[in-house]
Design goal:
about 400 residues, Alkaline Phosphatase, subunit A, eight-stranded mixed sheet, five-stranded antiparallel sheet, about 35% helix, binds zinc ion
Length: about 400
């Protein structure tokens, strides 16, 4: 049997006055998602535990069948996996932003979208300052998004699960002092952050940016730390071999750690201009391989539209997903024999607040062995009325694959 999961990121939303009281999903023309609802089951799933911040890393982990309460150890380990950095027992990954702090306030958590080549130079300077210490390894990523790895080499790290850190994007324009790392090992992180201030002040790349009236990176900001998550591989847990298509690094990382193939699609941007049709073609091509039973297609555009407060952009994005991904993928699956297909977002992203939210997401699934439940279409209202509720979102995957 072949399986497909399509994730319109953050598509779940509230009724919109500008859409006559309908949600974007209900206002959109999505005949293929509606067909899945008609042929199968519609319901609600809660993917983000109340105790955790809402985001794609937490929401998709649930969707993939793993409780984030048990398996989510931080963002940095997932990003490390996406970059192909292997964490050993006892190692820690720490997200290392290049930021601009002016007058002790977080002026820019991206240091003015710091360019990658200049970032690389700063990371080299940081690494040189750790010369003689074999535990710390800085890894340049893209732009301001970099990583710091603690290699244990038999020496336990000073951190624990109680070590607290704050994402710098949550404290824009605020004073940084109350948000510095705290808990076990926080002194080490603070020290590295302080050290970076004087190193960056003298760095030639920063001097040049100042001359060009661009924001310099004044220091690093360390956060999102964690150890390698102890995932049981997906194939072992569910008996199907997976692959994932996404433009988002965190999801690549989760995919790698679950033992999935990560399929790169040219033209996949993670934005509203993404090449939807290419994603649809690659989904079919990937699923037609003999060594793939299950494909995940993740599309970020619906989430981006919500962050920008673009109601019509959001409706348009989900219509594109329906037309260019769900439609072709479903008709191909029908032509192949036994199959199941599931559509579900990872978390709601409200147009009203322009940010990720907690709460239920609507899902629709159909295929072999899934009997129609008398639904007429896919959307939040139908999902709430259906009676199929997964308060622990990670239970849905077992139902989809095996139920
Ligand atoms: Zn998301």
């Amino acid at each position: 049997m072949k399986f497909a999961l399509v994730i319109p990121d953050g598509v779940a939303d509230e009724p919109q006055p500008s859409l006559g009281g309908k949600t974007p999903l209900e206002a959109a023309n999505i005949p293929h998602m509606d067909e899945i609802a008609r042929l199968g089951i519609v319901g609600q799933t809660d993917n983000v535990p109340a105790s955790m911040p809402s985001g794609s890393d937490v929401g998709t982990m649930s969707l993939f069948g793993y409780s984030p309460l048990e398996f989510h150890t931080g963002r940095a380990p997932l990003e490390a996996a996406a970059q192909g950095i292997e964490l050993q027992q006892g190692d820690w990954a720490v997200r290392c932003n290049l930021v601009n702090v002016t007058n002790e306030r977080m002026t820019s958590f991206t240091a003015g979208q710091y360019p990658s080549d200049a970032a690389k130079e700063l990371l080299t300077i940081l690494q040189r300052s750790q010369c003689g210490d074999s535990h710390w390894k800085f890894h340049a990523g893209v732009s301001y998004r970099n990583l710091l790895i603690y290699r244990s080499r038999g020496v336990a790290a000073p951190f624990t699960k109680e070590t607290q850190s704050t994402p710098p994007h949550d404290i824009t324009d605020q004073e940084i002092a109350p948000f510095l790392p705290s808990g076990p090992g926080a002194d080490v992180l603070r020290e590295l952050m302080t050290e970076s201030r004087s190193l960056f002040e003298q760095a030639a790349v920063n001097q040049e940016r100042l001359r060009n009236e661009q924001l310099p990176a004044t220091q690093i900001w360390l956060w999102g730390l964690g150890q390698r998550p102890a995932f049981v591989p997906f194939n072992q847990r569910f008996g199907v071999r997976g692959a994932v298509i996404t433009a988002v690094d965190l999801l690549r990382g989760i995919g790698r750690l679950l033992g999935w193939q990560v399929v790169e699609v040219p033209g996949a941007t993670g934005y509203l201009d993404t090449d939807y049709a290419a994603k649809g073609r690659y989904a079919i091509e990937t699923l037609s391989r003999p060594d793939v039973d299950f494909v995940v297609v993740h599309v970020e555009a619906t989430d981006e539209a919500s962050h920008e407060g673009g109601v019509h952009e959001k409706v348009h994005a989900v219509e594109q997903i329906d037309q260019h991904i769900v439609g072709p993928l479903h008709s191909w699956l029908k032509s192949q024999g036994d199959y199941r297909i599931l559509v579900c977002p990872d978390h709601p992203t409200f147009l009203r607040t322009r940010t990720h939210s907690h709460g239920f997401c609507p899902f629709a699934m159909c295929g072999t062995g899934l009997n129609p439940g008398g639904e007429v279409g896919y959307g939040e209202t139908a999902a709430a009325a259906s009676g199929h509720v997964f308060p622990a979102g990670w239970d849905l995957m077992g139902r989809f694959i095996k139920g």
